[in-house]
Amino acid sequence: MNKTLMNDEKHYVTLNNYLKHRFGCKVFRIPLNANFSCPNRDSSIDHTGCLYCSKSLSGDFAGKKELSFEEQFKDIKQVMEKKWHDGLYIAYLQAGTNTYADIETLRKIYNEVIELDSKIVVLSIATRPDCINEEIIALLKEIKLKKELWIELGFQTMHDDTKDYLHIGYHNQDFEKAMKLLNDNNIPVIVHIINGLPQETKEMMIETVKYLNNFVIDGIKIHMLHILKDTPLADIYEKDKFKVLTKDEFIDIAVEQLRLLNPNTVVHRITGDPVKEDLIEPLWVLKKFVVLNDIDKLMRKEKYYQGDLWQK
Ligand code: SF4
Fold first, then answer.
1. Helices 288-302 and 247-260 meet at what angle, rounded to 10?
2. I need a labelling partner for 39 at 20 to 30 A (CA). Which of 1, 20, 55, 241 fits?
3. What are 7-20's pLDDT values in tens digits?
């Protein structure tokens, strides 16, 4: 068990503790918007997008796409530095599919971003499994020689029927192919999953984490499904009022997922930060610190740790 990075308070490996341990100071993310599209939005795969995808292509807190990278970086850095004066940065290409362009365009963007500030220690790139291929891997390896690089890979669930229902547009075989390329080339991967997807039971959400244990997963983001205004999912919810997890149900599932997870995987997030005005359900996600505190309390009370149920 990775007790170095867990402590009496947190029985799982938080990104914060991991980064402090590695860099010896606060490291914060600067989410940037390179105005990438997504094959699931531009009709290459579909035009609907994943049914839950927000107007900003899941980049709600990224910089404004109309601004240059320098301006986006400066704006967000100023806000962050009010809280932490002497930090380092992770430049995070967040909105849209950030490997979805021709190689020359990608090369130019990645190089521009890593050169924005000497205190950038990591470039983190969000993308989809079907937008990783050998050509992209060759470029990532080139960039990795200049700057530490992470790939944030949308996965959401191991259940292909759910992925089809939600028009996600890729399947487990795409994920497996992408993971093989990334793992074989030692490119760190942070996988995103979503709890509370329509038609999924607790057992199905648990199966998703067990499936992930077949790969080398450096980090994970465990999200709760957000039903956001002006999305196809909001229309479905209005008609069907499908089951939304309560806070306690989410905590119960997330804690079991943490216990099943490889103890060396860094937990980048549990729950997310929706834009309050856009959120229809569940409203309890707005109390993020209550959710995180309740997870800590349950793990401490029951003496649960990340990975105590992990099986290779
Ligand atoms: S892959 Fe991401 S950006 Fe593309 S439609 Fe789905 S959520 Fe939106």
1. 50
2. 241
3. 878 999 999 999 99
